[in-house]
Amino acid sequence: MISTVSSPAIFGGILYVGSSDGHFYARDAATGAKKWEYATGAGNFIYSSPALGADGTIYFGAGDGNFYALRSDGSLKWTYPAADWIDSSPAIGSDGTLYFGSWDGALYAIRDEGTHAAEAWRFATGGPGLASPAVGRDGTVYVGSNDGMLHAIDAATGTKRWDHAVDATLQ
């Protein structure tokens, strides 16, 4: 059964959403009419919700372990490989740096260089399955992981600011 697990994003009247069928869709938000679709690969899935860049680039991760950048017309701009699937939704920092987690246990910081992505840094947590990151105004990237920790990472350097063990009494 094909499902939409990804939360949609809307920009300029266009709704963008990924699907468990490995396709990423752009639809008119008012009518639902399909604008375009992009196939990431057979047997793939897209659980990552998209982030939209200031220039209209659409960013999302997929089950094939790739992080995708699509142009607003649905054409591929570039892909960036992680070592395992990506269902973490990306966050975009104030300087345009993209942050996403992977089931390989890493939080990635990459920069869109136009025709390709360049890794700024990679932060290893103690476990796979990173949640979607958030970027604070002070330049801290926050992300949870299956290691039972909330991690705070300096966005400029990729170094740990602090960790906090998630206490079962807080749940």
Keywords:
171 residues; mainly beta; four-stranded antiparallel β-sheet; 16 strands; 0% helix; globular
Provide structural commentary.
The chain is mostly beta strands and 171 residues long. Helix content is 0%, strand content 45%. The chain is built from no helices and 16 strands. It has strands at 9-11, 14-18, 23-28, 34-39, 51-52, 58-61, 66-70, 76-81, 91-92, 98-101, 106-112, 117-124, 134-135, 140-144, 149-154, 160-165. The strands form four sheets. Strands 1-2-3-4 form a four-stranded antiparallel sheet, with no helix packed on it. A four-stranded antiparallel sheet has the order 5-6-7-8, with no helix packed on it. A four-stranded antiparallel sheet has the order 9-10-11-12, with no helix packed on it. It is globular, with a radius of gyration of 16 Å. The mean pLDDT is 92.
Task: Give a short overview.
The protein has no helices and 16 strands. It is an all-beta fold and about 170 residues long. The protein has a 4-stranded antiparallel β-sheet with strand order 1-2-3-4, with no helix packed on it.
